[in-house]
Write a structure and sequence with these properties.
The chain is mostly helical. The strands form two sheets. Strands 1-3-2 form a three-stranded antiparallel β-sheet. It is globular and about 55 Å long.
Length: about 240
């Protein structure tokens, strides 16, 4: 079976959106874990999830923009939500595949500086998908709830460093020990070929690659590096 990538993302995210937490989405991976533990279950090809974390260096609302004229005006026009961004609608790259399929009847576009990604997205059978409306909130929060200080909020909401760590860990508590990348690998480790590291990092040791049973294989451009992880094997060459 070869599931459509965009359909897979929509179905998988249903768990996360329903629970309003990235951590809750890991529950959906229990199905994959159970399948991989079956003695007759065989993966016939290789797949990798590549995560590029920009540490806050990207404005998602400025990357994927509403392209339908009325929606564009309400968001970027004078009196809109973000008029200070001053995007030129004529320079945006419309995403034809998302026209009306987003559920709100609005067509979207990519920023003017992203023509290559827009062209890839608009190809028939494109492998590119966009996961929108993500964040570190514990659950949906209204403005009134926030002003009345009664919603459940992620720890240190306005601290950039704390939110960067929370993006990588998304724990159910305020004391993250593992990251969601490491926890995913904990679930599917049995299906990974023994001669291929299940989790490799080129950005050093961080919260994302920590699992309960799996630690990241850390490399630079030419070799493996020594790391200091909070486990018994700290400082060993990974």
């Amino acid at each position: 079976m070869r599931p459509d990538r965009r359909k897979f993302i929509r179905q998988t995210l249903a768990t996360a959106l329903g629970g309003a937490s990235l951590y809750s989405a890991l529950g959906g991976l229990q199905v994959l874990q159970a399948a991989s533990l079956q003695p007759n279950y065989v993966f016939t090809d290789y797949k990798a999830l590549v995560c590029v974390f920009l540490y806050g260096g990207n404005d998602g609302f400025n990357t994927v923009a509403p392209y339908t004229q009325a929606a564009f005006n309400s968001f970027y026009g004078s009196g809109g939500v973000r008029p200070q961004l001053a995007l030129n609608r004529a320079q945006l790259h419309p995403l034809t595949d998302l026209s009306g399929s987003s559920g709100d009847g609005i067509q979207y576009a990519l920023h003017a500086q992203m023509p290559e990604l827009a062209a890839l997205f608009n190809q028939a059978g494109s492998p590119l998908a966009i996961m929108a409306n993500t964040g570190t909130l514990v659950g949906p929060v209204t403005q009134n709830q926030y002003l009345n200080s009664n919603p459940a909020l992620p720890p240190q909401l306005y601290s950039h460093s704390d939110q960067s760590a929370y993006w990588q860990s998304s724990p159910p508590t305020n004391s993250p020990v593992t990251g969601w990348g490491g926890r995913i690998c904990d679930l599917v480790a049995s299906a990974n070929p023994p001669n291929i590291p299940i989790l490799t990092s080129f950005s050093g040791e961080d919260a994302f690659i920590r699992g309960e049973n799996v630690n990241g294989y850390i490399m630079n451009a030419s070799q493996a590096l020594t790391v200091d992880l909070p486990y018994d094997d700290r400082g060993q060459l990974r």
